[in-house]
Amino acid sequence: MPKIDATESDPAIDLASLLDHRKPRDVITAVQALFRSSFPKRDFAPVTAAFPLVAQLFEGTFTRYRACNTEYHDYVHSLEVFSTCARLIDGAMLSGALLSAIDAADLLVAALVHDSGYIQEEGDLVGTGAKYTGTHVARSAAFIERQAADFGLAPDRAARIARLVLGTELSTPWDALPFADDVERLAGSILAAADLLGQMSDRAYLEKLLFLYYEFREAGFDGYATAFDILRKTAGFYASVQARLDGPLGAASVFSQAHFGARHGVDRDLFRAAIERQMSYLDSILADDKLNFRRKLKRLDLEAVERRRAG
């Protein structure tokens, strides 16, 4: 992994320069390297087995399932969460957390399958997987238990991974989640934090919100009459994310800072720093009602996306 010059100012730090999530081979190589810094190579086997299966699931070559057709919750997003989870596990180990190799491997498998609930089964031909937005977490947990044999997992281990996945459900109070013990709850908090940090620190996060807008529209969520509504509501969503990250998921920033300090020479939580820059830019967009917001979001061709959707 490239080392960042610790003298650089925070705005110059680009997480995308550390790892390109559009290159799956680079992602699995980076994650395995972090894992091996704390655990024996052989314990990574469940992750090695799961990685190509999840690629097949999203590509549409996994038996009995269609290809992913949600553009926000896609394969790249799952890889973002996967690598973010690996960074937090690394930081946790550097911070003295009592995670075992099995805990870490199960966490990484959970990260890979945490959005499998958006994938439609082969006979489901109505709409897209976005219609499952409200139930996708429960569907994802059910998927790993149902397909445990395909992933080479014993039923009890698949059930444990399913409980970790359930921790990504934002509508469930954290204390109500059915973790088996304190170590599992810590593992669940790492995955839940990785899901939030991975997507919101993406340099094209604001542009990708247009894809999320279309997913919410299909799911029938109220209050999304226009694409601008997703930007406006994201500002409010960030307040709830901050409360979650600073509350039950509070260890994540400690782990992030430990990871980036040890591996890249930057004593900062780079995920939170990137998100704060995104939200600051979002505030500037919302404050300027005279300029078409699409002109300020330049990392994707949003007009092309909308033309494709209309066509």
Summarize the structure in words:
The structure is a single chain. The protein is mainly alpha-helical. It has a single domain (16-310), classed as Catalytic domain of cyclic nucleotide phosphodiesterase 4b2b. 58% of the residues lie in helices and 0% in strands. It has 12 helices and no strands. The chain has helices at 24-36, 45-59, 75-94, 101-113, 136-146, 155-166, 182-200, 205-219, 227-246, 251-264, 270-287, 302-310. α2 packs parallel to α4 (101-113), α4 (101-113) crosses α6 and α8 crosses α9. The model is unreliable at 1-12 (pLDDT under 50).
Please specify the SSE layout and strand pairing.
Elements: H1 24-36, H2 45-59, H3 75-94, H4 101-113, H5 136-146, H6 155-166, H7 182-200, H8 205-219, H9 227-246, H10 251-264, H11 270-287, H12 302-310
Helix pairs in contact: 1-3, 2-4, 3-4, 3-7, 3-10, 4-6, 4-7, 5-6, 6-7, 8-9, 9-11
CATH class: Mainly Alpha
**How many structural units, i.e. domains?**
1
The CATH topology label is Catalytic domain of cyclic nucleotide phosphodiesterase 4b2b
Secondary structure: helix percent: 55-70%
Whole-number average pLDDT? 91
Low-confidence regions: 1-12
Oligomer: single chain
Radius of gyration: 19 Å
What is the CA-CA span between the terminal residues? 42 Å
Name the helix and strand elements from N-terminus to C-terminus, one letter apiece: HHHHHHHHHHHH
Strand content: under 5%
What form results from the Cα inertia axes?
Answer: globular
What CATH architecture label applies? Orthogonal Bundle
Tell me about the biggest sheet? none
Which structural class best describes the helix and strand composition? mainly alpha
List the total number of helices.
Answer: 12
Number of strand segments: 0
